[in-house]
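Hi C.,

You asked whether I'd gotten around to modeling the 114-residue construct. I have! Everything is below, sequence then structure, no commentary in between.
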Amino acid sequence: MTPPHRTAPAPQPAATAAEDGFDDLIHAPVRLRVCAALDTAREIEFGALLTLLDISKSALSKHLSALADAGYVTQRRAVRDTRQRVWLRLTPAGRSAYRGHVAALHRIVGRTGT
């Protein structure tokens, strides 16, 4: 007699932002710093954020794409000083996710509030 076919148990999802506020996407150090910078300003020009974070254009672009794909960051293009500029801002969902993530980190280290 052959044993019955067994399927592997479905992987259990990690805690999501909706459960406890911890957000794996935001947790990456550069993305956390991007969100922290954008949380304190209405919007920031790409070049200014590049200077603030002191990383390469390609690295910043990669992290911004991940945040934009999640709906956390939007960008607008505008001409300033005869040059095309990209301005970045947190979306309401991004701001909420970032602040929820910071609150979750505070809980992890035993602090309350923000």
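If it helps when you're writing up: Residues 21-108 form a domain with the Arc Repressor Mutant, subunit A fold (CATH 1.10.10.10).

Thanks,
B.
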